[in-house]
Amino acid sequence: MSYCIAFFWEIFILLSLSGWGGTVNRILFPKDQVDWGQKAAWGMAFSMVIGGLLNLTWTISTTSILLYLGLGIIGFILDIYQSKFIGFNSLNKAKIKLNNNIGIIIVACLIFGLLIIQYAGWVATDKFHSVDDYFAYLVFPNKMLDMGSMGLDPFSRRRLESSLGAQSFLHTFVLSILPERNIRIIDPGISWLILFLGVLGLFKDNNIPPKKRLLILCPLLLVIPPARNTTSIVVGSVLFLSLFRTLDWQKLKSYHFLKRASIIALITAAIFSAKYTLLIAAVILLAASYYFYIKNYRPIKKAFYELCAAGALTLLFILPWMISLYQSSGTLLYPFLGKGYHAAIYYDHYTQRTGDMLTLKGFSEMIKAALEVTHIGFLLVAGAYLRLNPGKTWQKEERGATLSLLISSAVGIALLLGLAGVVAERYTFPFAYVTIIVLVVKIISNIEVKDKEKNDHKFTKYTSALVAMLVLGMLIGKGSGWNASREFYQSHVGNIRRSLSGTPLVLAPKQEAEQYKNVQESIPEGELLLTRLDKPFLLDFSRNTIYIVDSPGHASLPPGMPLFKGAEALSDYLASKSIQYVAYSYNPEPAHQRDYWVRKLGDEIYPWVEPDRIINVLRPSLRSEVQYTLDFQDNLKKLGNLRERIYDDGEIFVIDLSRHKEG
């Protein structure tokens, strides 16, 4: 029963997002209706911007979220009525076309089946990251619902480094009535379906024949989203595709420049607030697009007015999120507008990720990341597009949307791999993957146009289409082949089967939730509590102000957490910040055991490197993380013996820093 509720709640959220997107459509572009994929994407972007206002004003609650989603459903109903069931008419037309082609029907049914398995498989899962999710990405939406806002979390590295928080607001749509195990309903769940609908709209925009649509959709649904944690992966892809399609929308130019700027700014603001690693590619996409627009549009001043309005509105839309981050972590936008309470400000011995590229290990990881299948696929498709594009059709695009997307992805990948020292595919996937899809569609569309003009040979036509399909197909299984895709779908079927059989996936047993309740009740209500626990998302954030140390030393209040100075220095520092109570999971230690961190120091070397050279080969930022973590946890253990334990259940203790242990 709980699985069925979650499944239909997922549909409810999707329809609500479509309703809000339809409302945006009716207000800004009343004469032209966009497709359902674009409406859902616009609704998602609008929700992420509204979330910033609610977060800043501390008005997020279960009631406000349900009211917001309910209003979206009303918008969806109005949209259905006003569009006179256009979507259903399109389905009937498609059905008529398919009646005489059994092969297409079979492939379409296969695609639909894979889509449903993905959609249903993400409803409930127990696959979460024990640090990223437990310490942060499951915490933030719970804080919003308990407190009304993400609030202050100055010791949270992920609060500072990851994003402004819009993805966490989307997660409140799930957690308002469902437990944490259902949180992937948003990403990849609903987002994967919205992306699929957006690609269908992209096909229609570019007049792709039905058979070639199916050739693209098959490998698309065999791709495994690199979702290591619950931050923005597929949500980012949805927003990038939506922004491209908006810039490429021919009917956009018929509206006032303020309306054009508003929708562009809305989507851009959502990208900015979703995850920092998406920001650079989004900025370059807009900058390149407006370069072409100002170059091609007449009169130039109106294009320039739109550029200024889009920039101002984007800043306005993300300002609430920025103010909230500043209140919590000391910067409006990390690292572009300052590093806030980051370790790089305090410690000379801290090494940032950019330093990783200077080591043998870091350089090898960068090369390995550059050779990941998404990046190889991007290079091959980009080369095919530039080589096979007949007549350089991007020059005919007023905003140069296609070439701008290509440039933004190329620069974004290069900067994330090199300058930023970020080497994981999940950071580049949202925009690189969308670019691959768009370029493949453009290649096929341009080939179809040239073929109709009778100026091309069949050999060029078919080989070009085949190259495009093969390159897109390389993305299958994230480079691991068909077996990875098969295992991926098998795991989803397993999730569905277990949930429907009455054995739902449990993220935290009842006794664990009761334990955390007892931990919290050991201190007075309203008091400030600093925690280093395994699953802090189980705490009641409405009862106490809770600071969570997710990565010790990497984020802390000025003048910085004292490191390598002993337990008493740490106690004095915390007391100076009005922190009296500290909770610590000492048996076992949080996230990973001590021997795990020690092994990190040994495993990060090559076999031919002497042990005394570990310090030179180990990635510097990882070395900092290990050393800071071990020092902080050692100091907490010492304080556990020097201060009064007001709670101790053999696994977690709570100490009162103001009360020294007698004797």
Structural description of this entry:
It is a single chain. With about 675 residues, this protein is mainly alpha-helical. The model is unreliable at about 475-480 and about 605-620 (pLDDT under 50). The chain has helices spanning about 1-30, 35-55, 60-80, 85-100, 100-120, 130-135, 140-145, 155-160, 165-175, 185-205, 210-220, 235-245, 255-275, 280-295, 300-330, 345, 360-370, 375-390, 400-420, 425-450, 460-475, 480-500, 510-520, 565-575, 595-605, 615, 620-640, and strands at about 530, 545-550, 580-585, 645-650, 650-660. It is about 65% helix and about 5% strand.
Topology:
Blueprint: H1 2-28, H2 36-56, H3 62-82, H4 86-98, H5 102-121, H6 132-137, H7 139-147, H8 157-161, H9 166-175, H10 186-205, H11 210-222, H12 234-247, H13 257-274, H14 279-296, H15 300-329, H16 343-346, H17 360-370, H18 373-388, H19 401-419, H20 425-452, H21 458-473, H22 482-500, H23 510-521, E1 528-532, E2 545-548, H24 567-576, E3 581-585, H25 594-603, H26 614-617, H27 620-642, E4 643-648, E5 652-660
Parallel strand pairs: 1-2, 1-3
Antiparallel strand pairs: 3-5, 4-5
Helix pairs in contact: 1-2, 1-3, 1-10, 2-9, 2-10, 2-12, 2-13, 2-15, 5-10, 5-11, 5-22, 7-9, 10-12, 12-13, 12-20, 13-15, 14-15, 14-19, 18-20, 18-21, 19-20, 20-21, 24-27, 25-27
